[in-house]
Amino acid sequence: MKAFFKRAVSRALEQSELSKEDLAYKILPNFLLEIFQKYLRVTTQGTEHIPKTGPCIVIGNHSGFMGFDALMLGHQIHIATQRVPRIIAHKLWFLHPKISVHAKKLGLVAANLENGLKVLERKQPLLLFPEGEEGNFKPTKYRYRLRRFRRGFVRLALQTGAPIIPSVVIGAEETHITLKQIRWAKELFGIIIPVPLNVIPLPAKWYIKFMKPIYLKKDPEKAQDLEYVTRLSRLIRLQLQKEIHKQLKRRERIFL
After folding, report:
1. Chain center to CA of 240
2. Cα(194)–Cα(255) distance, rounded to whole angstroms?
3. Do residues 195 and 180 lie in contact, with contact meaning Cβ atoms separated by under 8 Å?
4. Burial class of residue 217 in the structure, from the number of CB atoms within 10 Å of its CB (0-12 exposed, 13-18 middle, 19+ buried)
5. Cα 40 from Cα 46, distance rounded (Å)
6. Is the Cβ–Cβ distance between 84 and 71 less than 8 Å?
7. Burial class (CB in 10 A: 0-12, 13-18, 19+), 25
8. Smallest Cα–Cα separation from 168: which of 151, 185, 144?
9. CA nearest neighbour of 61 among 192, 256, 236
10. Which residue, 123, 167, 237, 239, has most beta carbons within 10 Å?
C-alpha cells in the first residue's frame, strides 16, 4: 500500500502542468477511484463507444444518494479516452462557495441547459443523469426502475448534434441503501432528502456498460418541440430500461 501511494504521488507531480480539472482527474483516480474500483470490483464494457474527440453526452441510470456512480462513470470515461468529462451535478454541490470551488475542480457543473451547451460547444464530454434527484435519492426497494427522464439531454443533442451514449450501472443500488425519501422537504428546502441505511459503501460488485451511441440530426428548431423531445426521451428511457433488465438477468451474485 505504501508503494502504491508513492507511485500515485509521483504520477500526480508529473502532471503539474495540467489544468486544475485535469490535475484533479489525475490525482483522484490514483488515491480514491482506483481504490474504490478494486473494492467494488468494477468491470466495464463498451468503452469503444465513447468518442475520443468532439462533444458527446453520456447518460446513465442514477442511484445511491452519494453520487459514486457519477464519479465511477467519469473515471471510466477518463481511463478509456484520457478526456475529462464534465458532470452535471445536483444543486447541493453549489449551495456554498467553499463546496462549489471543489466541485468545479472535479469537473462538476450546475444542472441547467446553458451550462450543458457551454461544455458541448467546447467539444468536451458531458455526463448527466436524466432521472435527476428522483433517481439518485429513490428508496432502494425501487432499485433499477428508471424514474421519469428530464428532457434536457435530448434538447442538448438536437441543438449541438452531439451523440448520446446511454450507460448502465449495475451494483450502485446495493452499494448505498436508501430507506426512504423525505419528499415534503422539496417544498421547504427545494430538494428531496434521502434517508440512508449506510454511509460506508457496501462491497457490491459493479458492472458498467456503455451502449452504442444514438445520433440525432442537429435541429435546434426540433429542440423546442415539446412533443417530439418527450417522445425521444421516452424511447431512450425504454431502451436503457431494457438493457438494465437484461444485465440484471445475467448477474449471478451481488456481493461474492
Report:
1. 14
2. 24
3. yes
4. exposed
5. 19
6. no
7. buried
8. 144
9. 236
10. 167
CB 202 within 8 A of CB 175: yes
Strand 43-45 and strand 207-210: the pairing is parallel
Q: Are 22 and 15 in contact (CB under 8 A)?
A: yes
- What confidence tens digit (pLDDT) does each residue in 67-97 have? 889 889 999 999 999 998 998 876 665 555 5
Cell numbers at residue 159, please?
441543438
C-alpha cell, 41: 470490483
| C-alpha cell recorded at residue 124 | 468536451
Task: Please name the residue that has the C-alpha cell 441503501.
Answer: 177
pLDDT in tens, 141-170: 999 999 999 999 999 999 999 999 999 999
Instruction: Return the C-alpha cell found at 152.
Output: 434536457
Instruction: Give ∠ CA 31-34-40 in degrees, rounded to 5.
Output: 130
Q: What is the pLDDT along the chain (256 residues), one digit of tens a residue?
A: 445 444 544 554 454 455 555 555 556 556 678 888 899 999 999 999 999 999 999 999 999 887 889 889 999 999 999 998 998 876 665 555 555 545 555 667 777 888 899 999 999 999 999 998 888 889 999 999 999 999 999 999 999 999 999 999 999 999 999 999 888 777 777 778 889 999 899 999 999 999 999 999 999 999 999 999 999 999 999 999 999 999 999 998 898 7
